[in-house]
Design brief:
Blueprint (H helix, E strand, L loop, with lengths): L2 E4 L4 H9 L4 E3 L12 H8 L3 E4 L13 H22 L3 E6 L22 H16 L3 E6 L2 E2 L6 H9 L4 E5 L3 E2 L2 E2 H11 L12 E4 L6 E2 H14 L8 E5 L1 H7 L28 H9 L7
Parallel strand pairs: 1-2, 1-3, 3-4, 4-5, 5-10, 6-9, 7-12
Antiparallel strand pairs: 8-11
Helix pairs in contact: 1-6, 2-3, 3-4, 5-7
Length: 295
């Protein structure tokens, strides 16, 4: 079984490497997703048994100034991967985002809810979802949210770094969601990717892959800093002041993309049958105890 993972150095890909040391990982040096016209031929030449798209353009604010690049990577390259999956008759795992919603719902979103992204990033990711669903039949689209891990640039590592230098932090407290540990998402993908000919343990289609307590960014920051201080990662705990999104954006030196205020995903019922645990609290503890916590 040859599993091809697009994305080699991202948070999810790093965890998949730990689970799949024999898989093939392609980064930008192996396949540049900003040139989607090259994707189909390269992937088909490898003839993988499963394709996992763990790569994306994720710079939410910068995407407003680079919409064409975000669209090529998140939508057109995803379409090319779907065409490759169809041509090879193999499954495709495609990772998406809560930012396909506008955050105005009073309850957590389910898969069938209407989408209405507020920014370029969300629209480009929605384009990728639609392309995958239209162009191949054997796919899992896994929507997740607020992903963090031991690796790369993410909210947990940023909070630890800022807490080491500042007495006061201002963190948004009117955006609600569910953090997702990349290690949990990797374990889900590991469970659903089976040898050729095996029945999939999770039905093909669209799933919300997250779970755990609903929090604001300020709540999440307070948990990070409190646990980090208890473990001795930071010498003192700065005060964390909550700020609403409007005031936060107004105080920033550069323009910011619009964000959904309540992009809360309801976890898919199908995940419970695997079983599959999304526990961001346990994931946070794993990150904080890692030597990479604020490296």
């Amino acid at each position: 079984m040859t599993v091809l993972v697009l994305g080699s150095a991202g948070q999810l890909a790093r965890h998949l490497r730990e689970l799949w040391p024999q898989a093939t990982f392609w980064g930008r040096d192996s396949l540049d997703l900003s040139r989607p016209e090259t994707v189909l031929g390269h992937v088909c030449s490898l003839r993988p048994s499963t394709i996992v798209n763990a790569a994306a353009y994720t710079a939410v604010d910068r995407a407003e100034a680079e919409p064409d690049l975000a669209w090529r990577i998140n939508s057109e390259a995803a379409a090319a991967l779907a065409r490759a999956a169809r041509a090879l008759d193999v499954p495709l795992v495609h990772v998406s985002t809560d930012y396909v919603f506008d955050g105005r719902a009073a309850r957590p979103y389910v898969e069938s809810d209407a989408v209405a992204p507020l920014n370029v990033y969300g629209r480009s990711k929605l384009g990728g979802e639609l392309a995958v669903a239209a162009l191949c039949s054997r796919y899992w689209i896994l929507r997740s949210s607020w992903v963090f891990s031991e690796y790369g640039s993410n909210f947990v590592r940023t909070m630890l770094r800022l807490a080491a230098d500042r007495d006061v932090l201002q963190v948004v407290d009117d955006q609600f969601g569910r953090p997702t540990y990349a290690g949990d998402l990797a374990k889900l993908i590991d469970r659903i990717v089976m040898p050729p000919g095996s029945a999939p343990p999770l039905p093909y289609g669209l799933h919300h892959a997250t779970g755990g307590q609903i929090v604001t960014w300020r709540d999440f920051a307070a948990t990070i800093i409190g646990r980090g201080h208890a473990l001795g990662l930071i010498a003192r705990q700065p005060r964390i002041d909550g700020v609403n999104t409007t005031d936060y954006v107004a105080a920033r030196p550069a323009p910011m993309a619009a964000r959904p205020l309540r992009s809360i995903l309801k976890p898919s019922a199908g995940l419970l049958a695997l079983p599959c645990s999304f526990d961001w609290g346990a994931g946070l503890d794993a990150v904080l105890r890692s030597k990479n916590a604020h490296a």
